[in-house]
Amino acid sequence: MASTMEFIPDTSQDDPVQVPATLDMEARRHQIFPVLSAHEIGRMRRFGEIRHFHDGETIFSNGRSSFGLMVVIAGRIAISREDGLGNTALITEHGPGQFSGEVAQLSGRPALGSGRAIGALEALAIPPESLRALVIAEAELGERIVRALILRRVGMLESNAGGPVLVGPRGHGRIHQLQSFLSANGHPHTVLDPQDDAQAAALVAHYQPTPEDWPLVVCPDGVVMKNPSMVDIGRCLGLLPELDSEKVWDVIVVGAGPAGLATAVYAASEGLSVLALETRAYGGQAGASARIENYLGFPTGVSGRALAGRAYVQAQKFGVEVAIPAPAARLICDTYPLQVEMCGSGTRLRTRSVVLSCGARYRRPSLANLKQFEGRGVYYWASPIEAKLCKSEEVILVGGGNSAGQAAVFLAGHAAKVHMVIRGDGLAATMSSYLIERIKATPNIVLHTHSEIIALEGNEDGLQQVRWRCRDTGQEENCDVCRLFLFIGADPNTGWLSDCGVDVDDKGFIRTGFDVAKSQCRANFANGIYPPDLPARAALETSVPGVFAIGDVRAGSTKRVAAAVGEGAAVVSQIHAFLANLPADKRG
Length: 588
Known about the structure:
The protein is α/β, with parallel strands linked by helices. It is built from 15 helices and 29 strands. It folds into four domains: 29-159, Jelly Rolls (Sandwich); 165-227, no CATH class; 248-361 and 545-586, FAD/NAD(P)-binding domain, CATH 3.50.50; 370-488, FAD/NAD(P)-binding domain. The radius of gyration is 25 Å and the shape is globular.
């Protein structure tokens, strides 16, 4: 599975840059299980209430309870990891001055462990909303608490504790999709092959799945689902909360990539109510970057997932509601408050402003049987899960941008050889120079210029062969590979905005600010209306008042993580200005 430290902030006090690949539980025990003083607990009392439990009483249950923090005053709490198959193992016991919980408690998501009272237990119960208030109001104490919560999640990831169990035949494409979804969202999980595991075999014998039923997924609370959708998984794990259609949010952010997360963090930290909707995983496409080396403040580089994880925890700390997977189907702009209609359920969410940071969709080449091999040999990102699959194999990677370069270098550390296929005559026009030099210095990366993929071959087990062609000579070549990585760019994710009339350019990217005015000027001039009577428009505001666009989806954006984060921060002041200028009857 993914390197477990990737989803979280760097919590090392000794070195502010280096993030270890694994967690040394003993070396960090004082950080993972800190003991609070009586004075510190006294400062925390105003955020919670004292509760009492009998010996052996269940305090919270894996996958069922959302409890916040339990600070032990007297007695002990036994913390166990469990899975839906009934397996249980003791993790630790919390004594006086210690507290239960992990990072999910910041947002009120279900517990990933179970707690039971040992002896007569007296504890200070701090619910999630009060916990967030505590970590902000008590900065030094809050830092220690959040560090402990994060490191506990890391430990769970390393032991695959507390998450769902995926049961199915080895190499099944759907299992890979679910693994990728869970890993990208920093959620522990276990994969069991019924041919190798007795419990998995017994489960299969009981449920008798058909080929269409794979995989079986056992939720932490014991519920078994057959070939669940991503939405089903999100509901099962609490990643996708029930959203109140009556509530009016100050800001709904569509897309939780770097731009969207930056907006969420800055807006929530300034007191606005924020809902972030994400289709697949926080971090967006940047979250799939193996290593970003030109982001300010990270001289040794940082993985996209690590950067996204930092922002995600920050957003939770400030009270942002993040819903995953929660694709938006339609933006409704002819009423106010504005409304975002959700895919599938048709639920309409109301908001005073919308920030479109919905990025782009992976571009797919025109290959007849491409869909057959997606997740079974064809991939659109290169995480540690895919790297493990291609260990000591030859692989093909298509693309010449920065994401492709980062993926090629990352995969070269695992694969025997990486064939990098591009249509152009070199990388200089599309890739940063530091990555070009890195690729040149990596002996097992082979660059094939003026080339394109023309055919895929395989069977029900997955991809087996890729054919490419030299565009100059027409010569074709077959390569017996089982892994093909596609990084050929992306198209703006704006088709769902057509009902709202958000102005886009000829490539589908959203116009904002002055570009909107220019577009309307041209339209008015063509219609004989001159000079145009154009309203003032903020730099990141679209043609629809109160709707803003940032990041890769915005026309003229620089397609860099740092720029996206900057736009996410900048748009918040423009939202404040928009809300302040609303008529009194619309301010709510």
